[in-house]
Write a structure and sequence with these properties.
Largest sheet: 8 strands, antiparallel
Helix content: 25-40%
Distance between the termini: 27 Å
Shape: globular
Radius of gyration: 22 Å
Number of helices: 14
Strand content: 15-25%
């Protein structure tokens, strides 16, 4: 195969053992034949062409926050971290164009300095913009949708090394799919997002009983721009969060309060609690009852990314399903009943969020008002029994699994729950007939 240029990683000499790659959660590992860190779009195009000539598959990987093997490859692993930063801001159009390897945290900070903001976000910001959008990362919103739905244009390197520019007006059929492409259509090199003048959000966090939250869910959803809640298994307790725009001024949590809530309780003590639960599973229900009462009500106001996101230092494995919003309460009650009658011991809360319908071909919210249920297990804890039982409930309601989180569904299932599934696979056949960007995960979820 010869010597392969790998950008900042240096050349891989013949006989050098390839370096294994692991995702953030540690549940996915791959050993690529070579790693490329292109310093320009041109270098990335050349890397794709060379891989195709050598008969190697190509996958791009961001920060590894997906729980699936979407980015795993034994071929060429592209690391886009050198392709980072803002290319340009168009204030008249209300857009920002960024390189694909830009980390969301850095984008948010740079936009804030310019007096701008994304409209909605997920709850962490450690991912690259291309990784987050390619797998459908989302927050919660009554009217504002996922990060992918905020895309107004993108650049894509296709299997033959061409650079394709896509928007509603240019290559619209590719744009409709590539905003959430699971890495199947090409390597994203730049993304143009819609942005708006920065604004304030007031967050109101409040403990609430499970029965009350589920009984009043439609009311909370209708009355709040962003509503989400966490249910603590083995208890009847939840913690709710309502984010709504306000006039300000900024009134963030005090330094001590923020440290206690976000670092001590949500990370430090939570880490210790989960470690104890892994060592002594029988103690988990008692721990859960105490932990679910530890968080207190609080209200604070700040700019969007400081309200939407929070640090997540406790590692876990996650499954998340998107359900028709009208099915949320029934499915969640079924999940609680299943946990209550089982011998399962669950130390992580269950997260519930919403999203409006969008028009992205394989978005989990494509064509329907959506609610999400996410189940988690602490890293190193067996999760299969819990996730299997939860998945049985979710699929009975026509659920669509998050593309970057653990699931067992295949192309046959997706063809049933995505009306436009055939549109995506036909486009893939056109753009990548030789499956240069293929891997085992895509073979399962999209078919051969």
């Amino acid at each position: 195969m010869g010597t392969a240029t790998t950008g900042k990683s240096g050349p891989i000499r013949p006989g050098t053992a390839p370096t294994a790659w692991r995702n953030w959660a540690g549940n996915v590992c791959a050993t690529p034949a070579r790693v490329v860190t292109p310093a320009s779009v041109g270098e990335l195009q050349e890397a794709v062409r060379r891989a195709a000539e050598d008969g190697l598959k190509v996958k791009a990987v961001g920060t590894g926050h997906s729980f699936t093997a979407a980015a795993a490859t034994d071929g060429v692993l592209i690391r886009p971290q050198a392709l980072a930063g803002i290319r340009g801001i168009d204030r008249a159009a209300g857009t920002v164009t960024v390189e694909a390897g830009t980390v969301l945290k850095h984008l948010n900070q740079a936009l804030a300095k310019e007096g701008l903001s994304l409209t909605n976000m997920g709850d962490i910001m450690e991912q690259t913009v291309s990784g987050a959008t390619s797998t459908g990362t989302h927050g919660t919103g009554r009217d504002s949708a996922s990060i992918s739905a905020q895309i107004r244009g993108l650049e894509l390197v296709t299997a033959d090394g061409r650079l394709l520019t896509c928007s509603e007006k240019e290559n619209p059929e590719v744009f409709a799919a590539a905003r959430l492409g699971i890495g199947a259509l090409g390597v994203v090199t730049a993304i143009t997002f819609a942005v708006e003048p920065i604004f304030f959000l007031t967050a109101r966090e409040e403990p609430m009983a499970f029965d009350r939250v589920t009984a009043e869910f439609d009311q909370h959803f209708a009355e709040n721009e962003h509503f989400e809640f966490y249910w603590f298994p083995h208890t009847g307790n939840c913690n709710t969060k309502r984010n709504n725009r306000s006039q300000g001024p900024a009134d963030p949590p005090g330094a001590v309060s923020a440290w206690v809530e976000d670092e001590l309780l949500s990370n430090g003590i939570f880490q210790a609690v989960n470690s104890l639960g892994r060592a002594v599973p029988a103690a988990i229900p008692s721990i859960a009852r105490v932990a679910s009462r530890a968080l207190s009500a609080r209200t604070y106001t700040d700019i969007p990314y400081k309200v939407f996101t929070s640090p997540r230092r406790v590692r876990f494995v996650e499954m998340e399903y998107a359900l028709p919003r009208e099915s949320l309460v029934d499915a969640l009650r079924e999940l609680k009943a299943m946990v209550d009658r089982s011998g399962l011991r669950i130390s992580f809360p269950v997260e519930v969020r919403t999203a409006p319908a969008d028009d992205i071909v394989l978005s989990t919210a494509s064509g329907r008002e959506t609610a999400y249920i996410a189940v988690h297990m602490y890293k190193g804890t067996p999760y299969q029994a819990y996730f299997t039982a939860a998945e049985r409930i979710f699929t009975a309601h026509g659920g669509r699994p998050h593309w970057g989180k653990v699931h067992t569904r295949d192309a046959e299932y997706f063809a049933q729950v995505y009306p436009r599934f055939g549109e995506f696979t036909a486009l893939r056949d056109r753009l990548d007939p030789e499956r240069v960007f293929g891997n085992d995960y895509l073979r399962r979820v999209l078919g051969a």
